[in-house]
Amino acid sequence: MTLRTAPGSGATSGQTSGQGGPPPPAAGARADGPPAACTITADGAYAARLARSGDSWYPERWTLDGPEPYAVPLPGHQPEEPGTEVQPMSDGRVLVRRLIAGRHTFSLLYPAGPGTGEVPLGAVECPQGTRLRLLPPAPGGERAYALAVGPHSTAVWQVAGGTFGPEHLAEVPGHCSGGAWLDRSGRLLALDRQAEGHTKAVVVDLDNGGAVSPLLQIAPHSDDRLLLADPDSGLLLISSDAPSPGRERLGWGVLGSTLPVRFPECLHPSDCTLTPFAIQPGQALTPEHCAVALRCDGPFGSWIAVWRPAERRLRHLPAPEGWLTGTGVWTEDGELWLPCVTDAVPCGVARLRPPAREPAAPRVTRVVQVARGDHVPRLPDAAGPAPHGGGPGGQAFRNGPASRGGGPTASGGGSPDGPDRTAAGPPPGTGLPVGAPHAHARHAHAAHRPGPAGPPVDITPGPGASRLGGPVFERVPGTAALFERVVPQARSDTGDAPRSGVSSSVFTDTDRSPQAGPGVMEPAAPRPVSLQQAATTGRMTGG
């Protein structure tokens, strides 16, 4: 592999082309060209894409962090080839990689009056059978990197932000693909390396001479790839066939964690393919709450899904019109920005704010129809204990011709049906029915006389209450039906695996033992899974 630096590298060419740039791309112009996508900087400030006007392709820069997004065309001296790559930099310039006479040339483009200024950076010449492509934008946006993939090794190049043009940084044995940044300094690069018939994610330390260390080793014979990583929280989106050999599944883990990789069942739908493309940044201490945007491809087109590790379901959202499929960026406060291009809006950003997490609903174990005149256990209202005969809102549960005075009748006989069973509410803060000993609170509502027949009751949970020393009872509003609410056992916030320090098992939502409850998971057969982080030790301790 040969490095060639163009004359005058680092100096502005001073030449311009065009008067104001070409018109916006025509409708449907991307059908026979490269994929309709764009590249966004790590901070979401700029984006760049290869746009089209008629039969000509040209780079286009988008500004996203202003009051309104706007596009600036950056045409060169001649139309670009469809395979030209573009990448925005943090200062607003756009890096362009062109393949010219077998050499990969790099330049920085920027608006200069009515035309385009260009800064040549140099070129990289690759041997036969080697493919070179740009890596995803690095954190900070001041430098850019490229990956030259050969038949036996893969080279990492710094192609922008250096002192003397393109610079060779590392040589990784094996055929590598992918590419994700694991830290904010741009030091640790994760690649998917194919060796000995299997693909494993590895870490390349660019500040340590390109030292390589393993990152994912879920099973000895599994293919483990890193799809997406968030440097702030350490959340990793992983593709692996370890849970089901021969079938790739989406999973997640946390960089440096001792917990195993988890493969939620909701990320394995049978009717569509999921591809993650953006993770919410800024959630340093709560990776399980990071929102992840996924592209869904099914028989009826493409749409968007949002998922959080702490939830056990996908939230499906329709794709906005003209969405540049598979591209987008999250803000720290949880807003998803999706670049769009339509005939009416050649540069647009759809901003979606998915709903927040929903609290888990209580589990209903028993529903009881209380007969007339029977004692009705109740919970104190949120505002405090109710008066005698109290029900919700301070009104009595009048289930029969009981005395309205809350006590025996004048004759001492109580109600015609027997002793008065409508008593005062339970002592404040106990959550227990009146007249029932603590040990027998569970049976206080058991009626021995038949109740009136009627249609099934729609159970609606009432106000929250404590569970101190006994079961929690709630009444169906407007009826005499009761249900007992059982507080679920404490489990991991992720809901996908129990809290454990063991990192030698793979968990899925279907890995449950017959004795396990609805929210409790048992590990499957032990399979080695560890998030190796040898290269990150320096960063964690003093890097």
Automatic annotation (TrEMBL):
Superkingdom is Bacteria
Which residue ranges have biased composition labelled Basic residues? Answer: 439-448
Coiled-coil intervals, chain numbering: none
Regions of compositional bias (Low complexity) in chain numbering: 1-16, 27-37
Where is the sequence biased in composition, kind Gly residues? Answer: 403-416
Bias type Polar residues, positions: 530-543
For region Disordered, the annotated ranges are 1-37, 68-88, 376-473, 489-543
- Specify the protein name: Uncharacterized protein
Q: What is the lineage of its organism?
A: Bacteria, Bacillati, Actinomycetota, Actinomycetes, Kitasatosporales
